[in-house]
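User: tokens in, sequence out, please.
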């Protein structure tokens, strides 16, 4: 901290704004404030800002509430809806607004990025760096640079750079404070120096830095997500083959994982990926590649997406197999709604999708998730919600594990067996110990696993 005070005194610590204070922006703002920067968060959602300004966090992210509270108490972290204030305050402006899938298309919806950049630009009357962190289609920077230069009173003294974000929800604080790399897409030495100053405490940890042009920086994010999604769908494709051949995908994945060239991370078979990033990002990437006339280069992403969605259909098939017939009228306990554990994010969540598929087939679905109940209820009010896994499982004909929360992994199969009608468990995440559950009298099934 003494070093930070020196930097402030010598004016080398830029003042930061973070525009868009959702999962990414709120985390970035609070982490940067915790590193000693003065940070102003900007959003159009007044309710969200009120919670943040009060030292709270309007979503679930481990470790974040403490940082927001400390940042607000220290006076280094403030929030506003005013772009005028943001432009006057900041030297470096991080754009962290959403880029969801456009309705009726695979393209990314750039409305929010465009609106944020334009609202900021008209107030920029001194040199400033605008840094894109949102995930956008390659080529976006040219358009945004043109808008910035045209709208900003400071004209070409306002520059654009790109710093793609790789944080994982559930580990967002750790990933922001100790990222495995920083990618700086810049078009001038000045922009690079601004970015280095804005990330000085992170770079001092020895974090690898990749300096490149803006187009490459934007592509790095698309490529990283394409690779991760492909790895997950690869092992799920193997699960499909295992299901036809009475082979076991768990053993297969384990055997592959010992090969250093392959590695075991993201090689976990199951219900597949979801959330606010991977699905929409691979679709937007394929869409952008097609626009650029190189659609064939990433046409495999269509397969990756299809394999992923088929896992949800297959989970329903397996449930029918497990109960030996139709699901209509049966009581199904769904454990999990979030797209992954340690998150309350239900955007494109496989768990909630499968629960809803059961419901549409006429099952009586009761769901529990440790953190995502409010978000799940907002999207799927027709489902029944329970306050605990045991309450959800009471008198159930089938229990389905859909999100691998630690709470669910640690359930005692004997105790749960005492409250259900039938001891049938579908482990959609390969998260439970099959032998332990089988020994407790459960009929255990998992995608791609041989029926014991
Ligand atoms: N969530 C993640 O794990 C993650 C990781 C890496 C990258 N990203 C990318 O970061 C971006 C943001 O994702 P997110 O998950 O934080 O989304 P989010 O929906 O949680 O947050 C977006 C925020 O932007 C605000 N906003 C919208 N328009 C605005 C405007 N004109 N001015 C100011 N604020 C505005 C919204 O009110 C919202 O609070 C996306 O491009 C996403 O792909 C997200």
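Assistant: Sequence out:
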């Amino acid at each position: 901290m003494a070093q930070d005070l020196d930097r402030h005194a010598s004016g080398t610590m830029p003042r930061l704004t973070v525009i868009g204070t959702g999962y990414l922006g709120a985390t970035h703002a609070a982490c940067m404030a915790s590193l000693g920067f003065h940070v102003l968060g900007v959003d159009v959602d007044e309710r969200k800002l009120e919670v943040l300004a009060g030292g709270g966090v309007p979503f679930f992210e481990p470790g974040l509430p403490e940082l927001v509270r400390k940042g607000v108490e220290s006076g280094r972290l403030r929030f506003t809806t005013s772009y005028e204030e943001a432009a006057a305050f900041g030297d470096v402006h991080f754009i962290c607004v959403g880029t969801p899938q456009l309705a009726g298309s695979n393209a990314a919806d750039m409305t929010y990025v465009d609106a944020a950049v334009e609202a900021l630009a008209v107030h920029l009357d001194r040199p400033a760096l605008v840094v894109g962190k949102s995930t956008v289609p390659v080529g976006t920077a040219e358009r945004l640079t043109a808008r910035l230069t045209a709208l900003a009173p400071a004209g070409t003294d306002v520059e654009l750079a790109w710093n793609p974000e790789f944080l994982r929800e559930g580990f967002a604080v750790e990933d922001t404070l100790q990222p495995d790399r920083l990618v700086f897409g810049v078009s001038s030495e000045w922009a690079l120096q601004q970015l280095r100053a804005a990330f000085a405490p992170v770079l001092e940890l020895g974090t690898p830095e990749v300096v490149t042009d803006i187009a490459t920086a934007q592509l790095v994010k698309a490529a990283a997500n394409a690779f991760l999604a492909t790895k997950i769908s690869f092992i799920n494709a193997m699960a499909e083959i295992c299901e036809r051949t009475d082979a076991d995908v768990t053993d297969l994945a384990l055997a592959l994982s010992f090969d250093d060239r392959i590695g075991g991370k993201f090689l976990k078979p199951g219900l597949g990926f979801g959330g606010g990033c991977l699905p929409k990002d691979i679709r937007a990437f394929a869409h952008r590649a097609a626009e650029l006339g190189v659609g064939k280069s990433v046409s495999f992403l269509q397969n990756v997406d299809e394999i992923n969605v088929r896992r949800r259909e297959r989970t329903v098939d397996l449930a029918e197999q497990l109960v030996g017939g139709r699901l209509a009228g049966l009581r199904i306990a769904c454990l999990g709604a979030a797209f992954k554990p340690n998150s309350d994010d239900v955007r494109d969540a496989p768990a909630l999708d499968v629960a809803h598929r059961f419901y549409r087939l006429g099952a009586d679905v009761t769901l529990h998730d440790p953190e995502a109940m409010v978000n799940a209820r907002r999207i799927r009010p027709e489902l029944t919600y329970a306050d605990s896994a045991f309450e959800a499982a009471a008198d159930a004909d089938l229990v389905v594990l859909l999100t691998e929360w630690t709470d669910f992994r640690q359930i005692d199969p004997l105790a749960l067996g005492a409250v259900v009608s039938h001891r049938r468990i579908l482990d959609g995440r390969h998260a439970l110990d099959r032998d332990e559950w089988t020994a407790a009298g459960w009929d255990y099934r998992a995608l791609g696993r041989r029926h014991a």
